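Q: Structure for this?
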Amino acid sequence: MPELPEVEVVRAGLAPAVTGARINAVDVLDERALTRHPLGAADFVGRLEGREVRAAARRGKFLWLPLAGGDEALVAHLGMSGQMLLRESDAVRERHERIRLHIEHPQHGRLAVAFADQRTFGSLAVDALLTTPDAAPGGFGADLLLVPSQVAHIARDALDPTFDERAFIAAVRRRSSAIKRILLDQTLISGIGNIYADEALWAARIHPETHGAALSVHAVRRLLGEVRHVLEKALAEGGTSFDAQYVNVNGQAGYFAHSLNAYGRGGEPCPRCGGELRREAFMNRSSHYCPRCQRRRGAR
DNA sequence: CTCAAGTCCTGTCAGC
DNA sequence: TGCTGACAGGACTTGA
């Protein structure tokens, strides 16, 4: 379930249930869910059992639960199809459940946190926390100036108040890559995936193949505004759900799929100009755009 | 056979 | 020569 709004819905759903809770036990049902934890299942379980969770934090599409002691966090990436589900402590296994945390919260009692993932691109890890180089909190929901080592190379996300807009604009204008590839580069700006890249480019009327260097400062700033706008709107509607692969911690779908203007609409009329939206192969996936109102400038 | 919300790795090439 | 970064393409996986 991937992009920033969907991961934020999960973080916000998890936070009240896990903050202050103790991890009593951990079931590793499929070791492939630990690809980000190279020390293996026994080490993973040993580092978690008996520890207390302090918060639920997020940067871009990475989620983490800082642990008492302040030096480590449980890191989660949902990949393409990962889910974090809050369940009764004795709930039956989810379809594709890979890991289960048995937690106990002072107010909510015993609960299960199930990590389920059909395609196994997602994974969990216990990771060291490092001091942030920019002296700002590690991410949304993090009050401390700490970030997991696996997240340190990820840029601050588009909705982070400490996101460096001037540096981003300068970096875009130095690149010769297609602007869509730049938006998907998590080391420059994080949280954007294929859906919201297409939506933001459509809103800003920029062709996805336009080179970064061909964009004016004004155009990049406008694009950034559209990125923030679409992420916030999607978040307000609970994220984008096409099928059961994206759900919140209670298993419910989001509503933003009804509001998409370009993504998934190849062959349909553009909601703005009536031209026919196109779907085109791009970076092993697809781009959706309107060839009429997203004109190619500085193309490749 | 094609397609899908992501990340990471590898090889190439340029520049210091 | 070796290091670093930019860049493009592909690997990984399951199921519809």
